[in-house]
Amino acid sequence: MSDQNPPSNLSGDDLATWASLATVLEWLPAALDAQLLEDSEVTHFEYGILFALANAPDRTLRMSVLADYANSSLSRLSRAATRLQDRGWMHRSPDPDDGRYTLATLTEQGKKKFDEATPGHVQTVHQLVLDPLTQSQRRQLREISRRIQRAIRQDAAWQPPAETERAR
Question: Is residue 76 pLDDT above 90, yes or no?
């Protein structure tokens, strides 16, 4: 339903809500990067790539699929993939089923780096996001986040496997 007279500014509760969310949007990525860089020498974006590959069949995904998972352009993903490849954590190769595509594959060394980075990252996510909330608030945050995602883009965002979500 569209409003005939949309607001021309934010004030009161709307301003307070937006200011809180905007602050989280600014502070959280920097906090996640800081922990991962200090402990594991990877950015949060790079960790997301390692996560996606570590959880993919044969630890391999097409770069275009990986870009969708990472909500990234192919050029940004390619730059990050080059950094990860230079460290020996992944490699790229032509897709044998369709040479127009490039596959990204996590190496054993990359899997070890992912396994090394995960405990500290999980601890930071708990400390900064999950632990301050009750179970009910966590569910609310998940639903609120999904509604905002759908308002931004109708196509589906990456979701954890159903059994992962039910286990929580």
Answer: yes
